[in-house]
Design a protein that fits this description.
With 222 residues, the protein is of the alpha/beta class. It is built from eight helices and eight strands; from the N terminus they run αααβββββαβαβαβαα. The protein has helices spanning 2-12, 38-45, 51-56, 126-134, 163-166, 179-192, 208-215, 217-221; strands at residues 60-66, 71-82, 85-93, 98-100, 119-123, 140-142, 170-173, 197-199. The strands form two sheets. A four-stranded antiparallel β-sheet has the order 1-2-3-4, with no helix packed on it. Helix 4 (126-134) packs across helix 7 (208-215). The radius of gyration is 17 Å and the shape is globular. The chain starts with a helix and ends with a helix.
């Protein structure tokens, strides 16, 4: 009984962890939280993402130095939360360059929303995560850095968060419909276990966001 209460307590607290490595905690600018330009909102609306969903995910608009352009750029800030605390930030500019907060811990995006459900959907980008939210599916997480065909796929950041998958009856792998995505798909299945994984097929669409735009919320949910 005591053990069961301990397990329940860990679930309620969202698996608060004592991480061995000293990661950097992001310093973020909250002065413009919830303030969006018309172009910013339109960029999301064009991808089927509502302003309500932008706010729900705590997405921010800011300026940040982007090394790919060697200058400060207007960026989208995707905050990575754990137990309500910002653990990492991904910055993405209008040219689709991105970077993570230097020295911060690498975790899955939207992890807090995936604690109590008996299923979880794993995608390859923040827009895909928000697309499933638009379709009424909240237990969806994204890998932080996508997949590529060069070299090995490093998913070591999953090691500290296996609990988030152990209580799931089904794990839906809904990554990009390309060669890199299929490579990442195989590695996710290997790590999580083929017995509980199901593969989502987007047909002729690239990913969840592309499917949302072309087929709509109901079709994506189904």
């Amino acid at each position: 009984l005591c053990l069961w209460k301990f397990i329940q307590c860990r679930w309620k607290k969202g698996f608060t962890k004592q991480r061995e490595k000293n990661y950097v905690k992001p310093k973020i600018n909250l002065s413009n939280q919830g303030k969006y330009s018309d172009n910013f909102i339109k960029y999301f609306l064009d991808r089927g993402i509502s302003q309500t969903t932008i706010s729900t995910f705590g997405v921010r608009q800011d300026k940040e130095y982007m090394p790919q352009e060697s200058k400060e750029m207007n960026v989208i800030c995707f905050d990575y939360f754990l137990d309500g605390e910002v653990i990492n930030v991904k910055y993405r500019d209008g040219k689709k360059n991105f970077k993570m907060y230097k020295g911060a811990e690498k975790i899955l995006y939207n992890l807090d929303k995936a604690i109590n459900e008996d299923y979880i959907v794993v995608v390859e980008g923040e827009f895909d995560c928000m697309s499933f939210h638009e379709a009424g599916i909240e237990s969806c997480v994204s890998v932080p850095n996508g997949f590529n065909l060069k070299g090995n796929i490093n998913l070591d950041y999953l090691n500290d968060y296996t609990e988030y998958f152990e209580n799931k009856e089904t794990v839906y792998i809904a990554v990009d419909n390309d060669d890199a995505g299929r490579k990442g798909q195989k590695e996710l299945v290997r790590r999580i276990g083929a017995d509980k994984c199901k593969i989502v097929d987007f047909g002729d669409c690239k990913d969840a966001n592309d499917y949302l735009i072309k087929q709509g919320k109901k079709a994506l949910r189904e």
